[in-house]
Amino acid sequence: MKGLLLVALALPTVARADWTQTLELGVGVRGSLGGSYTASPDVLAATVEGMRVEPVPYEGWWGFGGGGGLSLEARLFGWLGLELGALITRDEGVEELDGVDLIGTNRSLHLPLAVVLTLPSRGLRPLLLLGYEVVVPLSTEAQYDSDVLEVTTEAGTYSLLHTGLGFEVDLPIDGYDLRIPFAMRMAMNLAADSETLAGRARYRGTRVGPAVRIDEAVFSTEHDAHITLTTGVTWYFR
């Protein structure tokens, strides 16, 4: 009976040791390069000075950007992982209003959290990612050379569905588990309204007889989608 009791007490310790042997923790640096996109709604109408105006100036956004930051990762059983990132990016969007380019710039903090599925092989491992991403704008800027319309930009915190596909490569360095990840990622704003200007633009104007002249536009630079290529280096330890 005493022998059975000792075995029972030892089992949790053995199970715990086996579990910890399958856990890998990693910290890394990551860079990103890609593009951002915001669609033009189907209805370009807004209420300005109590009157409905259609169409109003708006063309959607597209542009390129990049940035970098840190990542924390955990792998269990060699194939199931969790990835948390913190990246600061500069994303630029361009649209054309009345023949003049409008450039909207976002500096943002991206906080992706993703589940990672990995093929547990040596040398090269395919990766599949699915998760959630929060974008916290730090600053916005508008460049628009026009004497007719004053344009400013704004952005609030928004969330994205985060997916990705890629692979990681082992670096052959004795005593260090260093890996270089490559991934193509897409983050989509599922809450974006593609049919109206709600949440995308605000206008101010002046009554001119029975009509309204639009003098100022405030455009949101929250993007509908981000497509990025990321890479870096991650150091894994137990």
Which properties best describe this structure?
238 residues, mainly beta, eight-stranded antiparallel beta barrel, three-stranded mixed β-sheet, 8% helix, 66% strand, elongated, disordered N terminus
Give a brief rundown of this model.
The chain has 238 residues and is mainly β. It is built from 1 helix and 13 strands, in the order αβββββββββββββ.
Oligomer: single chain
Which sequence of strands runs across the widest sheet? 1-4-5-6-7-9-10-13
Poorly predicted regions: 1-17
- Helix % is under 10%
> What are the secondary-structure elements, in order, as H or E?
HEEEEEEEEEEEEE
Number of strands: 13
Notes on the structure:
With about 240 residues, the chain is mainly beta. Helix content is about 10%, strand content about 65%. It has one helix and 13 strands, in the order H-E-E-E-E-E-E-E-E-E-E-E-E-E. The strands form three sheets. The chain has an eight-stranded antiparallel β-barrel. Strand 9 and strand 10 form a beta hairpin.
List the helices and strands and how they pair.
Layout: H1 2-21, E1 23-38, E2 46-48, E3 51-53, E4 61-76, E5 80-97, E6 100-118, E7 124-143, E8 150-154, E9 158-171, E10 177-188, E11 201-208, E12 211-220, E13 225-237
Parallel strand pairs: 8-12
Antiparallel strand pairs: 1-4, 1-13, 2-3, 4-5, 5-6, 6-7, 7-9, 9-10, 10-13, 11-12
